[in-house]
Amino acid sequence: MGFENMMADLSNIGDKVIPDTSTKRKMTEAGAKVLAEKLKEATPRTKHNDVKYGHLQDNVTYQGTDIDGEENGSSTVGYGKKAYVARFLNDGTVKMPATHFVDNVRRESSDEVFKVQRESYDKLMRGDR
């Protein structure tokens, strides 16, 4: 078997196992949805009523693009305009200890996020149902 034949075979295999950008977006968006739900559950809720932005829990969002809005197969999970508050709570300040709730959710939900992304991959690439 020559080098050209081997490269042609690898090229054909690659089309069957490497997802395109649209498929990647669907996969990562499925994972982002799971992570957003987990973040929403773990986000502390205070009794303070912010009329303009609402509670931090209510601001958890996800999108099927990267942070700049570019469609490259990435998805983003975050807090929108209240992200700075989440950072203070997660990382702490001089006057407030860190809670690490975002870090903990990311770590604890990584297996579930990967599982959902894998199921999405199998369904989209292999036709598994």
Automatic annotation (TrEMBL):
Top-level taxon in the UniProt lineage: Bacteria
Name of the protein in question: HK97 gp10 family phage protein
NCBIfam families assigned: phge_HK97_gp10
